[in-house]
Amino acid sequence: MKWFLILWACPVMLLAAWYGLSYYDMSFGFFMLTRETHDLVFQIYGNVLGIPPESIPPLVARAIIVDSFIVLGIVAFRKRRELAAWYRRRFGAGAVQSAGAPSLARDASLSSAP
Fold it and tell me: What per-residue string of b and e applies to 58-92 under the rule 16 or more CB within 10 Å gives b?
């Protein structure tokens, strides 16, 4: 599971770092981090996909969000027993205390109304 998360997170972080640095033209002397390369990459992808280059970053962001939910769902499914135990420890104690408290409802009604 650890390697699954590492192999998912590393490309996402690498892409986000490249996008952020190249978008703001913080090249540190590397050609791949210049704004010209940024525009060129999205121009090439836009030509290949047949869509405007400006529409690619929101599509990539949406894909990363969907993939993140899928990965977190897989992790939650794999850890469901630990998560359920944590939930019972965290929120189950309040339910036990309130069950021991005296109830205001009575079994027999003291009202004579029908």
Answer: eeeeeeeeeeeeeeeeeeeeeeeeeeeeeeeeeee
Distance between CA 83 and CA 85 in Å, rounded? Answer: 5
For 11, 57, 60, 67, 93, the CA distances from 53, given in Å and listed in that order, are: 21, 8, 12, 22, 54
Say what the pLDDT of residue 92 is.
Answer: 83
What size, in residues, is the chain? 114
Residue 38 buriedness (CB in 10 A; 0-12 / 13-18 / 19+): buried
More confident residue, 69 or 100: 69
- Cβ pair 50, 65 in contact under 8 A: no
pLDDT per residue as tens digits for the range 29-58? 889 999 999 999 999 999 999 999 999 999
- What pLDDT score does 83 carry? 92
DSSP 102: P
